[in-house]
Amino acid sequence: xxxxxxxxxxYGETQALFGVSLSVAEGEVLALLGANGAGxxxxxxxxxxxxxxxxxxxRFRDRSITAWxxxxxxxxxxxxxxxxxxxxxTLTVAKNLSLGIKATGFRSWSVDExxxxxxxxxxxxxREAETLSGGEMQMVAIGRVLLGSPGLVLFDxxxxxxxxxxVDDVVxxxxxxxxxxxxxxxxxxxxxVALSVADRAIVLSRxxxxxxxxxxxxxxxxxxxxxxxxxxx
Length: 233
Ligand code: ATP
Hints:
It is a single chain. By secondary structure, the protein is an alpha/beta fold. It has one domain (2-229): P-loop containing nucleotide triphosphate hydrolases (Rossmann fold), CATH 3.40.50.300. It is built from 9 helices and 10 strands. The strands form 2 sheets. It has a 6-stranded mixed β-sheet with strand order 6-7-8-3-9-10, sandwiched between helices. The protein has a 4-stranded antiparallel β-sheet with strand order 2-1-4-5, with helices on one face. A hairpin with a 2-residue loop joins strand 1 (2-11) and strand 2 (14-24). The longest helix has 16 residues, at 164-179. The radius of gyration is 17 Å and the shape is globular. The two termini are 29 Å apart. Adenosine-5'-triphosphate is lined by residues 11, 14, 16, 34, 36-42, 189.
């Protein structure tokens, strides 16, 4: 599904990623872990064409997307749930959701399916997005990405600031996506949440991959986890 080959990404002259390579298969869930400033968001921004790598290549479904514009990458089936949700604040929930609708060739989701997953949204359709709680905003952001028929969803800190019940809902959506063949990359400070749902994990430090393997291997080895992630939960 996704193949990232040796990318170097910069902000101006500051290098944020150093030769990062990874791949994600159809329906696979990859946890991307690491401390603040490790380069996790930069990796997502590189895949999305928001901060293009200076060297290396990114392939999605066997096509090189390294130089593509972000809207073309989205139309190819890469979805994004940003950490700050990025809803249109003065538009209603219904309108925010409808802005995400597009066909990509991957599984398409209807508004009814989205509101079956997040039942609270049924009663919030006419509300302006800026009046929602953080958890409700996250439901809209995830609903919007589903309506865009993604083959791969990039979740940036999806559990950040959310109540445990909403975190469970988010984890269940990721499991559902996997069962439908949709792949996910989850960037998380909260390693417990990410490792509970991921198949594989990658740990970044200072812009480089320092460990990769099965998620169960990392979650089941406290010493390894401590050495890689220190105080991160
Ligand atoms: P966090 O969890 O804090 O978001 P992260 O692992 O996602 O951390 P990035 O946000 O990708 O890390 O940051 C990687 C490096 O790039 C850091 O050194 C950061 O200071 C730098 N960086 C990030 N965004 C910019 C920017 N817009 N301009 C300059 N440097 C940036």
